[in-house]
Specification:
Elements (H helix, E strand, L loop, with lengths): L5 H9 L9 E5 L13 E3 L5 E10 L2 E11 L2 E6 L5 H13 E2 L4 E2 L2 H4 L1 E8 L6 E15 L13 E7 L2 E4 L1
Antiparallel strand pairs: 1-8, 2-5, 3-4, 5-10, 6-7, 8-9, 9-10, 9-11
Length: 169
């Protein structure tokens, strides 16, 4: 059994550097809606979560929980509004291509579903620590844009995406 001491544990932890949450890129593979420069307007995001669903099986009066399939939760990206408000307009167009309200026409999923890459970067080298690919994503909510004469902060809005599954490397 390894010797455990509090001073050894603290020494080991203080001599390490840890990943930072502010070093990341969000990259859209869309050619129809966004371009590569739009990643610089991302203010915040999160790496996606996945949960294994469960099912219960009864056997001889006992209940056993079994894992079923992965469930992928929606995720949100916060954007800074550019001077011409073009980033928000791109998302509104994307939503309109998914469902046109006036004609009740629904878009082609092959066209409106796009892949999104999320990279968590090493803060010292800029190299990716972990890259997630979110397959067949599309915006489900383009959030509000608060307008306020007394506000001094940059204008921001959120976009919530849903997607089919994710992989990481």
């Amino acid at each position: 059994m390894a010797d455990f001491s509090l001073s050894g544990f603290i020494s080991n932890q203080t001599n390490q550097d840890f990943a930072r949450g502010y070093t990341f890129y969000v990259m859209f593979e869309s050619v129809d809606y966004l371009d590569s420069n739009d990643r610089f307007l991302v203010k915040s995001s999160s790496l996606p979560a996945s949960t294994l669903g469960t099912a219960e099986a009864n056997w001889q009066g006992n209940t056993y929980k079994l894992a079923t399939t992965n469930e992928y939760t929606d995720f949100t990206i916060d954007f800074m509004v550019d001077p011409k408000d073009s980033i928000r307009e791109k998302f509104l167009k994307w939503n309109k291509d998914i469902h046109e309200v006036e004609t009740n026409k629904h878009g082609d999923p092959v066209k409106y579903m796009q892949n999104i890459k999320l990279e968590h970067l090493d803060h010292t080298t800029g190299n990716p620590l972990l890259t997630y690919t979110l397959w067949k994503a599309f915006p489900t909510t383009v959030g509000e844009l608060a307008l306020d004469y007394s506000a001094k902060d940059l204008a921001t809005f959120s976009v919530t995406f849903t997607y089919q599954w994710h992989e990481w490397a």
